[in-house]
Amino acid sequence: MDNFERVMALAEFAAKRHEERRQVEFRIFITYLTFLAVIFYHFTKKEGLSASIDTWIRELITRLGLSAPSSSAPIDAWVLIVALLLIHVVYFFWQTTIGMANDNDTSRRNFF
Hints:
By secondary structure, the protein is mostly helical.
């Protein structure tokens, strides 16, 4: 294998990694928007949560050491606000790291 083929293999590898990372980034973005839509929906609805989601969220709240509301009461707004902020923080930290990795892949692809 000569040097040209090795350099082309490196460039193809970087391009492949960049494309795979962009696909994962798109899936995570759709998940992020879904979480935001669910939280917004729970801000606007008046009755309690559905049984499966209700049980899971109440268990999570209890494990965090907070007092879970009764099963007939809707989730408090502060819990939703904390969840919203936590989702934002995690997503934006993840976006900065994925952005750096994408920059590395594109510069490697363009260099080779």
